[in-house]
Amino acid sequence: MSVTGGEIKRVTTHVLHAMKERGEKIAMLTAYDFSMARILDEAGIDVLLVGDSASNVMAGHETTLPITLDQMIYHGQSVVRAVHRSMVVVDMPFGSYQSNSEIALKSAIKIMKESGAHAVKLEGGAEVEDSIRKILQAGIPVMGHLGLTPQSIYKFGTYTVRAKEDAEAEKLLEDARLLDQLGCFAIVLEKIPAQLAKTVSESIDVPTIGIGAGPDTDGQVLVTHDMLGITKDFNPRFLRRYAELFQVIGEATQHYIADVKDHKFPDKTEQY
Ligand code: KIV
Q1: What is the tally of structural domains in the chain?
Q2: Closest atom, ligand 1, to C-alpha of 209
Q3: For residue range 50-95, what is the model confidence (pLDDT) as tens digits?
Q4: Distance of CA 254 to CAs 26, 45, 257, 265, Å?
Q5: Is 51 in the pocket of ligand 1 (CB under 6 A)?
Q6: Residue 33 phi, psi (nearest 5)
Q7: Domain region containing 69
Q8: Are residues 120 and 112 in contact, defined by beta-carbon separation less than 8 angstroms?
């Protein structure tokens, strides 16, 4: 963790840019609530993404589509209250930026004002150019998101690897160059071939942050609940589980239940 003279140095867009320049990888994870964000921030994570994956992970929806702007702001506020060092990026939910750039700007301003986050993320390339331009003009940092874009799941029909064919790969590279030129401060590359992610990362100035995009992006992101093994039945090839918390929490809960039933909790030291 970068601590100078006892003061914690906050991660900013400039810090991320400098990390790319000196070849230091960026570590990003999702967070949706105060308690988890506090653990991840204290552990030294660079960026916390308040992802619209909250729709799946926190609310149990099948897709990211149902989550609302106000719900994203609620999650964003909870995360912002917890962090001292990490940069907090809030996902713009489906419907909050696609229809026109005025609506996009209004949504982004609402997120920044009400959540206290440091940046927004939105999905897509040339299709959302006007929205990105408008948000950036207002001084709001924007993180792009290309490749598998879960808000378009009903257009694509599956969550399989994107941009395997030349035409889609070329379009993705063009979109990445466009987002770079527009002034996005970073771009998430989700579930694309590793070689394409490498080419994109070498072709643009801003950092790329990969998920299922191989080792050559400038950073990596995972959904925290997947990385910690809290989600149970999600096992894509790109996921590495660093803990098995579904099992750990389940066993602790069974232990607690048994203690209560057996009159073992609370004991004499656990009462007044
Ligand atoms: O919503 C999310 O969690 C994301 C990451 C998978 C990048 O967009």
Answers
A1: 2
A2: 7
A3: 999 999 999 999 999 999 999 999 999 999 999 999 999 999 999 9
A4: 38, 32, 5, 13
A5: yes
A6: -140, 165
A7: 3-241
A8: yes
The verdict on 194 and 263 lying in the same domain is: no
90 lines ligand 1 (CB under 6 A): no
Structure tokens at 259: 């203690």
Q: Is the pTM higher than 0.90?
A: yes
Q: Give the residue whose CA is nearest to atom 5 of ligand 1.
A: 51
Which is nearest to 85 in space by CA: 132, 37, 126?
A: 37
**Same domain flag for 161 and 257:** no
Residues 6+ apart with CB under 8 A from 245: 228, 229, 230
Same-domain status, 178 and 254: no
Same domain for 119 and 253, yes or no, is no
- 122 and 192 housed in the same domain: yes
Whether 89 contacts 45, CB under 8 Å: no
CA distances (Å), 98 to each of 3, 124, 268, in order?
40, 9, 60
Give me ligand 1 centre to Cα 119, in Å.
14
Token pair of 260 as six digits: 């209560």
Residues 127, 63 share a domain: yes
DSSP for residue 86: S
**pLDDT tens digits, residue range 217-261?**
999 999 999 999 999 889 999 999 999 999 999 999 999 999 999
What is the chain's length? 272
Q: Is 211 in the pocket of ligand 1 (CB under 6 A)?
A: yes
